[in-house]
Amino acid sequence: QKEVEQDPGPLSVPEGAIVSLNCTYSNSAFQYFMWYRQYSRKGPELLMYTYSSGNKEDGRFTAQVDKSSKYISLFIRDSQPSDSATYLCAMRVRAGNMLTFGGGTRLMVKP
Amino acid sequence: NAGVTQTPKFRILKIGQSMTLQCAQDMNHNYMYWYRQDPGMGLKLIYYSVGAGITDKGEVPNGYNVSRSTTEDFPLRLELAAPSQTSVYFCASSYQTGMTSGAYNEQFFGPGTRLTVL
Fold first, then answer.
1. Choosing a second label site near A34 at 20 to 30 A (CA), which of A12, A85, A91, A106?
2. Of A76, A96, A94, A73, nearest to A85 (Cα)?
3. Do residues B68 and B48 make contact, with C-beta atoms less than 8 angstroms apart?
4. What is the 3 state secondary structure string of chain B?
């Protein structure tokens, strides 16, 4: 079993839809939860991160963490074709150097 | 600032050849990392460095070597390339004040090097 599981997709939605991307994990020591966006043939870039449980909102993006279920989500409202990319979740223990990544979900937003 | 730069962008190697992937950053970050990304597998940490002269193994270090003689540069060496090393390699950097601080400091990634070993 992988430490962090993520549905690979692809997930295809029409422009304007609400998108839900999810990851599950097994290590209860993870405290930092990140979402990276990766465009084709580019390096990942950080979208958002949350510490411990709760929600965090940034514009059209909302990150949620449910530590009791070991489940994190990224919601994208009013999705745009420019949101088409691979979304990677990543996690880290409180004081550590290593990020553990999910395999990524490929999202396609069609005009 | 150029951020994190990587060279080359693409490379094809024959089995048994060696090469060095170059990585440089101009953000004065103390931490640098090398990852590999295989299709559907996310990124896996190969090696990382917390400062010049200090390196440590990540999750998948076998077949690779690193050195960090300056703050800016963190080359990754492949000796005796094997088909299993076919992957996309990403270098990243971050600024961290200490392991026990608990703060998350964003890792900035380079554009990647696509390596094929035939």
1. A12
2. A76
3. no
4. CCCEEEECCEEEECCCCCEEEEEEECCCCCEEEEEEECCCCCEEEEEEEEECCEEEECCCCCCEEECCCCCCECCEEECCCCHHHCEEEEEEEECCCCHHHCCCCCCEECCCEEEEEC
Between A41, A92, A104, which is nearest B104 by CB? A92
Average pLDDT, whole number, for chain B? 92
Residues of A in contact with B107 (CB under 8 A): 46, 99
A43 with B110: Cβ contact below 8 A: yes
Q: Mean pLDDT across the stretch A24-39? A: 94
